[in-house]
Specification:
The protein is mainly α and 65 residues long. It has one domain (8-64). It is built from four helices and no strands. Helix 1 packs antiparallel against helix 4, helix 2 packs across helix 3 (35-45) and helix 3 crosses helix 4. The protein starts with 7 loop residues before the first helix and ends with a helix.
Length: 65
């Protein structure tokens, strides 16, 4: 698997899958990235105050970097 920036659609998939209770490993396989990429995405782009991951917030935060 090659490094690539996650898209808004992929971030939505991560958010929806987490709401359904999927594991990070399952999410990674469905998107085609390493599980560590999902872990990093959730850690970096979650709301620091609420500790929750939301795809729109994550995409905005990533675009600012």
């Amino acid at each position: 698997m090659k490094y690539k920036q996650l898209t808004l659609k992929e971030r939505y998939h991560i958010w929806a899958s987490l709401k359904r209770g999927s594991t990070q490993k399952d999410i990674a396989q469905s998107i085609g990235v390493y599980p560590s990429a999902i872990s990093r995405e959730i850690q970096r782009n979650s709301d620091k105050a609420t500790k929750e991951y939301h795809y729109a917030f994550a995409d905005t935060k990533a675009q600012r970097r």
